[in-house]
Design brief:
Number of helices: 34
Number of strands: 0
Structural class: mainly alpha
Shape: globular
Strand content: under 5%
Length: about 600
């Protein structure tokens, strides 16, 4: 019977016979048959992802007193989750309870996922307590959703606690459980904690997946640890896990960040050997890397190559080229790429418009002729926080504080309250111009308005005072950020090390390095270069060489600045000897790494 009914309703849907719905709702069919047929119709709509029809049918059923079964309520919640209508999902759940339909584990998990996707993690936690109170026992999906949500929100301690609770409940953990938290640690530069978490995951019987390795690759590339990243890549191969295009794109991104395009293109060429096809992200990463190095001609050749391979440039491709044209000083070329983006049918997003606008600002040298609001409104975009903050930052960097404050006033008139990013742009620009008092004044105003300074705000204040030798003020800001539970990052610690080196306080600089590592934050090439530079200034070349070796041992690649610091006080004969010494050291370290492999 139901099989036949399903076939009939399928035909109703395919022929778009909406009158059948009205007939069932208006009582032309018995109520008992109507509810079954309506449930069937709603199921078919949801199964075919016919969103408008699904939601319309659902609303009409409720309005006419026909209540779907719990599976259809769950399907509607899933639809609302997927299109980001969390408030509507909340209303549906409330109505469910009012009618007396008992939620299932699927109901709770779907709603939890909705909250987490929208960043409402505390609301998700309240729902967890509610479901437990009502006797619905969380399963592994419940905890995986919550761990993912809290990890993305940056609340890593809570995500860790949830994994512990999951294990105590006897639920099986998997790589899917741990991967989001590992990613959270990697993004924050807490690579040691991420590695500890991976070991815990393995000890719990969960094997790392390609996604796990890709997460570590991203973290290592983001923090410029390319030697470690390549080692991870090799380890992945040794465990018979085949790298995917994400693995390659991540490594290419890492090398492009460091300006090592040669190695990036070696990986690009290796894709065909691994039966992998480059995608638009691969090309965008390489084009961006080339533009940053000023090799605009090669970037254009690469764009032609991607088109020849039937990989169509996207909004990001054109935005990168617009920005690259701007950096070359060619406003005409920037406009040409922007117009080409429109001609091929792409609709520029807010970032694309803002990039072009900032290009005009930088190259024309004035923002008065460029009517930001009118331009963006004409294209259907309303300037938002990002738009205003990007413009204010650009004006501040150009030293046009008057125009920057005018944009600040426009921002307020348009109903946007300046946030910590806005104020940090002013603070950074004033500090860069040596205006410490003005920077402090802006910072005080920020605090008066109840805004919380971010790690970036405190770091620019610490750096701005440290480079001027005002080390006591730098440490005062450092103490204040710790007191307010704003966690320093490697850039913050480097700013302190730099300041201490400038005032010839090398011993305290080493203490800062140790303190940083105690907090699980690994030093980077800048940390070492600062200490190498100061040791060389003091004539302590053996200590500088020891730091250089330590860099290599830890897989941190020195750059031109590092080598310049090592060589700057040596005469010609000593430089030749030093170069030979460094070459031997590099060969020794490479040999050691290969032996370990």
């Amino acid at each position: 019977m139901m099989h036949s009914a399903y076939f009939v309703m399928e035909r109703v849907v395919s022929l778009n016979l909406r009158g059948i719905l009205d007939a069932m709702l208006d009582g032309y069919v018995s109520p008992a048959a109507s509810i079954k047929l309506l449930d069937l119709l709603l199921w078919i709509y949801t199964k075919k992802s016919m969103l408008e029809q699904s939601l319309s049918t659902f609303d009409k059923m409720l309005l006419n007193g026909f209540y779907p079964d719990v599976k259809n309520w769950n399907r509607i919640l899933r639809i609302l989750r997927d299109i980001g209508l969390v408030n509507k999902a909340r209303e549906v759940y409330k109505r469910m309870n009012e009618i007396g339909i008992k939620p299932t584990i699927v109901t709770y998990n779907t709603l939890l996922d909705s909250f987490c996707k929208e960043g409402e993690v505390q609301q998700a936690l309240y729902l967890l307590f509610e479901m437990q109170k009502r006797g619905c026992v969380p399963n592994d999906i419940t905890y995986n959703v919550l761990v993912n949500g809290f990890s993305k929100k940056g609340e890593l301690d809570e995500a860790n606690r949830l994994i512990g609770e999951m294990q105590r409940s006897g639920l099986k953990v998997s790589a899917y459980t741990y991967n989001p938290l590992i990613y959270g640690y990697c993004v924050k530069g807490k690579l040691v904690q991420a590695l500890v978490l991976e070991e815990e995951m393995i000890s719990r019987g969960a094997s790392p997946t390609v996604s796990t390795y890709n997460t570590f690759l991203y973290g290592l590339c983001k923090w410029e640890k390319m030697t470690d990243a390549r080692k991870r890549f090799s380890d992945m191969l040794s465990k018979n896990l085949a790298p995917d295009i994400i693995s390659y794109n991540t490594l290419i991104y890492g090398y492009c960040r460091l300006g090592n395009l040669d190695e990036a293109f070696v990986l690009f060429d290796d894709l065909s050997c691994q039966n992998l096809v480059p995608n638009v992200i691969t090309y965008n990463t390489l084009i961006c890397g080339l533009c940053r190095l000023g090799d605009f001609l090669m970037a254009l050749q690469l764009k032609d190559d991607m088109v020849n391979r039937s990989i169509l440039p996207d909004i990001f491709t054109y935005t990168i080229l617009v920005n690259g044209s701007c950096n070359m000083g060619s406003l005409a070329l920037a406009k040409e790429f922007f117009d080409e983006m429109l001609d091929v049918g792409l609709k520029p997003d807010q970032f694309a418009y803002t990039t072009r606008a900032v290009a005009e600002l930088k190259l024309v040298g004035s923002s008065t002729d460029f009517k930001l609001k009118e331009e963006m409104l004409a294209k259907g975009f309303t300037p938002d926080y990002i738009t205003y903050n990007v413009f204010i930052d650009a004006l501040c960097k150009l030293g046009k504080f008057g125009e920057a404050f005018s944009f600040l006033q426009k921002m307020v008139v348009d109903g946007f309250t300046p946030d910590h990013v806005t104020y940090t742009s002013f603070i950074h620009a004033y500090l860069k111009n040596g205006c410490l008092r003005e920077a402090r004044s802006i910072f005080d105003e920020m605090l008066r308005r109840g805004l919380s300074p971010s790690v970036v705000t405190y770091t620019v204040l610490i750096h701005g005072h440290a480079v001027k030798g005002r080390i006591e003020f730098a440490f005062s800001y450092f103490a204040e950020m710790l007191e307010k539970s704003v966690q320093p990052n490697v850039i913050t610690y480097n700013a302190l090390i730099n300041g201490l080196c400038k005032v010839k306080s090398i011993a305290p600089a080493y203490k800062i390095l140790s303190k940083m590592e105690e907090k699980g934050i690994s030093p980077n090439k800048y940390s070492y270069t600062l200490l190498i530079n100061e040791n060389c200034n003091m004539g302590n070349w053996p200590e500088a060489l020891g730091l250089y070796k330590e860099m290599l041992d830890r897989g941190i690649q020195p750059d031109y600045v590092t080598h310049s610091a090592l060589m700057k006080l040596l005469d010609k004969d000593h430089k030749i000897h030093a170069i030979q010494c460094l070459e031997n050291l590099v060969q020794f370290c490479e040999g050691t790494v290969k032996a370990k492999d």
